[in-house]
């Protein structure tokens, strides 16, 4: 598969990408656990069918020390015993926040209660931003047909200020 457009060589996309990377840094530096950030990004990317982001977040999670078992089970997290209650709440939140059109109501009160039970206000804010950001990234890459497989952890570090 080849990309419809090379977003890395386009001046407008590169300018946007720099701001996107800066927004991602805000979340990366938040108190939301890095493992949760990567699991959330991976799950949303799976749902949205974004190969590029699935590749990226699998590799970033591995580089950060995530186990292959947990990565293999993200898509079936409800049936898996390897996730904490806080991670399970974040994954439920991610699915509901990603499948807005399917739910016709967004995140349920039950899921919100679970998320706020396990995460403080700063972590919840970061989680909301993470779900929004990864969904935007998924849409950009799916529309552009950015191919998966060539991502290397840290390759976008130069985009952030």
Task: Provide a compact summary of the structure.
This protein is mostly helical and 161 residues long.
Describe this structure in words.
By secondary structure, this protein is mainly α. The protein has a single domain (11-151), classed as AhpD-like (Up-down Bundle), CATH 1.20.1290.10. Helices cover 65% and strands 0% of the residues. It is built from eight helices and no strands. Helix 5 runs antiparallel to helix 7. The termini are far apart. The mean pLDDT is 93. InterPro entries: AhpD-like, AhpD_core, CMD-like. Pfam families: CMD. This is AhpD family alkylhydroperoxidase. Residues 16-96 form the Carboxymuconolactone decarboxylase-like domain. GO terms for molecular function: peroxiredoxin activity.
Task: Break the fold down into its secondary structure elements and pairings.
Blueprint: H1 11-28, H2 34-48, H3 51-63, H4 68-73, H5 85-98, H6 100-103, H7 109-118, H8 121-144
> What's the gyration radius in Å?
15 Å
Could you say what the CATH topology is called? AhpD-like
The SS-based structural class is: mainly alpha
Q: What is the number of helical segments per DSSP (H or I, 4+ residues)?
A: 8
Question: Residue share in helices?
Answer: 55-70%
Q: SSE order, as H and E?
A: HHHHHHHH
Number of extended strands: 0
The chain-level mean pLDDT equals 93
Q: In this structure, how is the largest beta sheet organized?
A: none
**How many distinct domains?**
1
Low-pLDDT windows of residues: none
Supply the CATH class.
Answer: Mainly Alpha
Shape from CA axes?
A: globular
CATH H-level homologous superfamily name: AhpD-like
* Strand residue percentage: under 5%
How many angstroms separate the termini?
32 Å
